[in-house]
Amino acid sequence: MTELATMDFHSRPQAGDAKPWAFPAPERGTLDNGLTLLRCHRPGQQVVAVEVLLDAPLEAEPAGLDGVATIMARAFSEGTDKHSAEEFAAELERAGATLDAHADHPGVRLSLEVPASRLAKGLNLIADALRAPAFADSEVERLVANRLDEIPHELANPSRRAAKELSKELFPSDARMSRPRQGTEETVAAIDSAAIRGFYEKHVRPATATAVVVGDLTGIDLDALLGDTLGAWTGSSAESRPVPPVTADDTGRVVIVDRPGAVQTQLLIGRVGPDRHDRVWPAQVLGTYCLGGTLTSRLDRVLREEKGYTYGVRAFGQVLRSAPDGTGAAMLAISGSVDTPNTGPALIDLWTVLRTLAAEGLTDAERDVAVQNLVGVAPLKYETAAAVASTLADQVEQHLPDDYQATLYRQLAATGTVEATAAAVSAFPVDRLVTVLVGDAAQIKAPVEALGIGEVTVVAAE
Amino acid sequence: MPMGHTATAQAGSGGLTATEHRLANGLRVVLSEDHLTPVAAVCLWYDVGSRHEVKGRTGLAHLFEHLMFQGSAQVKGNGHFEFVQGAGGSLNGTTSFERTNYFETMPAHELELALWLEADRMGSLLTALDDESMENQRDVVKNERRQRYDNVPYGTAFEKLTALAYPEGHPYHHTPIGSMADLDAATLEDARAFFRTYYAPNNAVLSVVGDIDPERTLAWVEKYFGSIPGHDGKPAPRDGSLPETIGEQLREVVEEEVPARALMAAYRLPHDGTRACDAADLALTVLGGGESSRLYNRLVRRDRTAVAAGFGLLRLAGAPSLGWLDVKTSGDVEVPVIETAIDEELARFAEEGPTAEEMERAQAQLEREWLDRLGTVAGRADELCRYAVLFGDPQLALTAVQRVLEITAEEVQEVAKARLRPDNRAVLVYEPVTDEDATEDTAAAAGDENEEAAK
User: Fold this and answer.
1) Among residues B189, B143, B117, which one has the least CA distance to residue A336?
2) Residue percentage of chain B with pLDDT more than 70
3) What is the mean pLDDT of residues A350-378?
4) Facing residues of B32 across strands?
5) Which of B72, B383, B60, B374 is nearest to B205 (CA)?
């Protein structure tokens, strides 16, 4: 049964003339203490974003102390030479600011957001945190205990649990990347304030740090503000650390992390591939989007919009660590969750999508829509200061030029269907994918074995 | 013909202005110009949410929201997503207790496309709606429910606490995701009837914000939406009024396979749109918003009995709002230890009120949150719709932060004293069990989710 509508219909409107927009170009400089500074004025953005990158990568953590970079990052906001931990948190909030800090493979990153009217206060606090962190015994003990309490919560979360297992499978057991970023119960328990201070003294200094400041800087004398704050931070000079290469074993295989009774199976299917230094990156971005960037991409067209097996499955490429010489790597993966009874059928369809892509390639129409989206959303995506600051910081962290993102948009627009197909197919080869399934092994093991996508092993959830 | 008036910037609005218009069919339109970035946001709020659902059909408003992306007279299948994304836009829809919203953020030169798309489905959805999309989206929504609630630890806490805090039969007793049984029971005819009842121009507010030409925008709105007939006959939602306080402590203990003990509670608080609600927001911020709050300092920093502790506010206009407490315990700490500490802190706060410095901090935090929300065209469009739909005046969005800054310490103390009491809360306690003796499937961190999204 259909119903006739009574409205007046008009044909689809044509687009107006596009207004020019370009990814903002930052101004680069160096403070007297060696700190690299990128600044970018974004009119109207009343909340200023400040990102600080420290050359303190996870692979620099001492043996047996995985998690020391994470605890150090958290301890930055737990008191300085001027404020106790409680006072520091209170001063930040009094400025209407938020300060987040986290440690990842490329280094430690602090992210401050503060209203432009209180930028001076915010910069003072972040500079104090970096220049003279208290690292008090009692606060570090608390952070360690807190971190230990978090671990069972992460293990109980299907997507976190899947990520942990995939890292363990992909990377050699002696590589830092094979182990949880924030440490295990055993390594975290061994961390104390002396370990934090030792890591800080060895790896944190202005000469190897970069600050990115983005927002409406109208009427703000940023040089003066920085001189009194981040500019007052001192430290020895040092070379940037060499970046070790990333190796991974992507032999096709399946690991089931058993969660008896789970109503869904969490999928994480991945391998390691080229990062942004590789010429294939724009084509890989485009091809990956066509495969699983949105609910109208190939995977969700079938798995969600035709079959209803899932709320959504995404394919993505995420840089793990980059090196100036181009030896870095990105995680290429497909993730989502499907209901338990349909786990086998969903994986059959998923592999069929990959095989069809390899056999028939993408269509020009798919490529066009993907380019229009990826390039067209740029002004939306970078409306806030925080979004711009984050991308500028990523570029620095990945040893890319400051105009990388702007160039990437031009390259995407110039990438053809054939290149995008080739990149997607080599990013997701059907026989070189490591599949992690967090779900009820008793129900899903047999159907998964029948797929022939590699040897199936079952491990306990904890 | 549309008629409108131009508002001048009011104090505390950050220089933002908005104009209001109404089409002959009853569609209210709010426009706000901002030429800093070449983007435009379109937001459409329909005045229908899960509170309008009837017994046996929970989850229908949200399931219906999904169906709005399945095509209309001139838009085939997933065309709505394809057109918007192909134009470099982003989009989604969400369903809450009190409303359903749809939004597109577009490069400014593609604004007209978003208006055409929204009008097409407002006026002609039923010409495309069929069994196939109904069955498919029913499965998608059931998988959404599994992914966000049933398959994560503590995932059903929000649902359980809401059911405790609002009595059986109350329109807010169930949450927007609905139950599996009701999702299974919904029929195509239910969906059709839902559309005919609630999806009308006179039951909606459209806002357009960003790099726009207001006159031309209004002409497009008239062109695309103007011929959609308005209709009456929407039943009023069931009465959501309740006494100001619960009058007793309600309690449920859940034994489930969760990683740690947890204490959660919902306090009955003043309706959104009142000064007392803003005062409650400040009270909850002082007590449990961020890492300098009283509860965080007490439980996480000093007693070290909790791994996380905080308060949130679920603002509601058609029923009492909820103050949302969430504490996950540390190690082997037992729940009564936490509960005693919380009661002490709440009693002390009611007795003393906030310090001047606590007021300053809480107001600075809420001010920044408002700057964040109004800092994007999409955020601004959503807030303009919110104030237009729930309170009849979009201009209130532009002065909301000012009202929070005007609240006094005495008002904060007063609302804490009256509302943040043990006899005005529903308590949910989680006690972990091991795999073997689990009575229910494991369910995580969704906590305070109160919206369902289409993607």
Assistant:
1) B143
2) 92
3) 97
4) B209
5) B383
State the Rg of chain B over Cα: 23
Out of B109, B137, B192, name the one closest to residue A15 (CB): B109
Query: Can you give the C-alpha Rg of chain A in angstroms?
Result: 24
Interface predicted TM-score of the whole assembly (ipTM), two decimals = 0.95
C-alpha A281/C-alpha A316 separation (Å) is 12
The residues, ordered by sequence, that sit 6+ positions from A125 with a Cβ below 8 Å of its Cβ are A88, A91, A92, A95, A97, A99, A112
What SS3 class is residue A435? strand
Which segments within A172-245 are labelled E, that is strand? 210-215
Q: Which CATH architecture has domain B19-226?
A: 2-Layer Sandwich (3.30)
Contact call for B259 and A155, based on CB within 8 A: yes
Q: Which residues of B touch A260 (CB under 8 A)?
A: 435
When CB atoms are compared, the residue of A98, A264, A377 closest to B90 is A377
**Residue A214, φ and ψ in degrees, nearest 5:** -135, 135
Q: How many Cα neighbours within 13 Å face the side chain of A108? A: 27
- Rounded CA gap, B256 and B153, in Å? 9
The domain defined by B249-435 folds into: Cytochrome Bc1 Complex; Chain A, domain 1 (3.30.830)
pLDDT at B4: 39
Sheet strand arrangement including B321-329: B250-256, B425-432, B262-269, B321-329, B306-314
pLDDT tens-digit readout, B175-194: 999 999 999 999 999 999 99
Mutate to test the interface with B, among A149, A259, A299 (most CBs of B within 10 A): A149
The yes-or-no answer to whether A27-232 and A253-460 have a common fold is yes
Q: Which of A384, A394, A300, A296 has the alpha carbon at shortest distance from A338? A: A300
Residue limits of CATH 3.30.830.10 in chain B: 19-226, 249-435
- Burial of residue B92 (CB within 10 Å: 0-12, 13-18, 19+) is middle
Question: How high is the mean pLDDT of chain B?
Answer: 92
| pLDDT tens-digit readout, B366-424 | 999 999 999 999 999 999 999 999 999 999 999 999 999 999 999 999 999 999 999 99
In 3D space, the residue among B102, B108, B35 whose CA is nearest the CA of residue B66 turns out to be B102
What is the CATH architecture of A253-460?
2-Layer Sandwich (3.30)
User: Could you identify the residue written with the tokens 């890319």?
Assistant: A400
- d(CA A209, CA B274) in angstroms, rounded, equals 48
For β-strands A253-258 and B204-210, DSSP reports them as: unpaired
B153 in helix, strand or coil?
coil
Band the pLDDT of B13: cuts 50, 70, 90.
Answer: low
CATH dotted code for A27-232: 3.30.830.10
| CB-nearest partner of A10 from B83, B116, B331 | B116
Using an 8 Å Cβ cutoff, are B295 and B287 in contact? Answer: yes
A270: Cβ contacts below 8 Å, ≥ 6 apart: A166, A170, A331, A332, A333, A334, A433, A434, A436
Residue B165: partners with Cβ closer than 8 Å, 6 or more residues away: B246, B250, B266, B268, B322, B426
- CB distance from A5 to chain B under 8 Å? yes
Res B442 pLDDT > 50:
no
- Per-residue confidence band for B441, with pLDDT thresholds at 50, 70 and 90: very low
* Placement of tokens 């690991």 in the chain: A255
Q: To which residue do tokens 């700057």 refer?
A: B371
Q: How far apart are CA B280 and CA B267, in angstroms?
A: 11
Question: How would you classify the pairing of strands A107-115 and A47-54?
Answer: antiparallel
Whether the CB-CB separation of B285 and B352 falls below 8 Å is answered with no
Q: Which residue spans within B250-392 are E strands per DSSP?
A: 250-256, 262-269, 306-314, 321-329
The per-residue pLDDT for range B192-233, each reduced to its tens digit, is: 999 999 999 999 999 999 999 999 999 999 999 999 999 988
- Establish if A405 touches chain B: CB-CB under 8 angstroms: no
